[in-house]
Automatic annotation (TrEMBL):
It is a multi-pass membrane protein. The keyword Transmembrane applies. It holds the Pfam family Glycos_transf_2. Residues 24-178 form the Glycosyltransferase 2-like domain. It comes from Plasticicumulans lactativorans. InterPro entries: Glyco_trans_2-like, Glycosyltransferase_2, Nucleotide-diphossugar_trans. This is Glycosyltransferase involved in cell wall biosynthesis.
């Protein structure tokens, strides 16, 4: 049955609470058909051992493989499986948001669908939540499973963010537990479209705690991040957490002003002394350097304008095409 319901009712609305499970687990999945079933079974096993009621929500982020078919099959077999399918690939951030909106639990855990976030950490997340934390971060202990370049990219990314964004994301991951309060704040009070979950979950504050974990190798399939995808995430993150780059533009202007004063005085002295034909090379370099500074500055300002434009258009962050396990409630939100 193809529903083709294109729904996005903006922030704030959740499926009406029926029988509310204690814990909701949100799994963003893009082409994870190979491993999704095992992920569901493993996570359900852990939660069952914890003795909590739960639901697992898979958000199929426009997969081209059989991910959603697997989810549908799983939902037939197990009542605790629910799934949403986006009309195309909207990105992990959108998938996480859709999952948070669909979740009904008193606590919501977000976890990768490739089992790189070890479900064995879930009991620790629950323990810290019961001890009073509203947000529990699972923090990477090491990055040994990442390749050299992936590690290097992560370092640049996190370094830039902690410098400019004043949030510490060193080794942070999207593997987290959020209390219902935190979830409600994230989906109702932060309506921004360019979202960066890792940063937002820290930004909201409340009692936060963290648990270290070792990143597991991928259970199946391959990593989904392209370099371009990462750059775009980094840009969103920086732009939405800080306007420091704009201040850098101003700083750059001040530096060039000082430079201009020195070079200008020098030129003036040369002119007074009568040898005003010299300095062609200086002129050329100055022009080139200034030109690049101006272009870079325009680019930075342009990025912010683009962000404003994106937010202003008010397009939905994602479109849901199909859902399973949502009974008679409207699919997702
Ligand atoms: N993912 C997604 N949409 C995307 C890319 C990734 O929902 O456009 C999901 C993916 O299925 C996985 C998680 O996000 O569950 C992390 O992706 P991946 O394993 O590729 O990244 P990494 O482990 O390198 O962070
Ligand atoms: Mg992964």
């Amino acid at each position: 049955m193809v529903l083709l319901e294109v729904l996005d009712t903006g922030p704030g609305k959740r499926p009406a609470a029926g029988e509310v499970p204690l814990v909701s687990v949100v799994l963003p999945a893009h082409n994870e058909g190979e491993g999704i079933r095992r992920a569901l079974e493993t996570i359900a096993g852990v939660l069952r051992a914890c003795g909590v009621t739960f639901e697992l929500i898979v958000v199929d982020d426009g997969s081209r493989d059989d991910t959603f078919a697997e989810v549908q099959e799983a939902a037939q077999r197990w009542a605790w499986v629910r799934g949403l399918r986006f009309s195309r690939n909207f990105g992990k951030e959108a998938a996480l948001l859709a999952g948070l909106r669909a979740a009904r639990g008193k606590a919501v855990i977000t976890i990768d669908a490739d089992l790189q976030h070890p479900p064995g950490v879930i009991p620790d997340l629950l323990r810290l939540w019961r001890d009073g934390a509203r947000v529990v971060h699972a923090v990477k202990r090491d990055r040994s499973t990442d390749t050299g370049t992936a590690r290097w990219r992560a370092r640049v990314f996190n370094g830039l963010l902690s410098r400019f964004g004043r949030i510490d994301l060193q080794n942070a991951s999207d593997f987290k537990l959020l209390d219902r309060t935190a979830v409600d704040v994230l989906i109702e009070r932060l309506p921004e479209r360019g979202r960066f979950y890792r940063g937002l979950a820290q930004w909201i504050g409340f009692a936060q705690a963290s648990v270290p974990f070792n990143v597991a190798p991928r259970a199946a399939g391959t990593g989904k991040w392209s370099l371009l995808g990462l750059i775009s995430l980094a840009t969103t993150a920086i732009l939405s957490f800080t306007s420091a780059p704009l201040r850098i533009v101003t700083l750059l202007g001040l530096v060039t002003l000082v430079f201009a004063a020195i070079v200008g005085t020098d030129a003036l002295i040369s002119w007074v002394l009568g040898n005003n034909a010299a300095g062609f090379l200086t002129l050329e370099f100055t022009m080139l350097i200034l030109g690049s500074f101006i272009m870079i500055s325009l680019g930075i300002v342009g990025e912010y304008i683009a962000k404003i434009y994106e937010e202003l258009k008010g397009r939905p962050t994602y479109l849901v095409e199909q859902s399973v396990g949502f009974d008679d409630e409207p699919p997702a939100v």
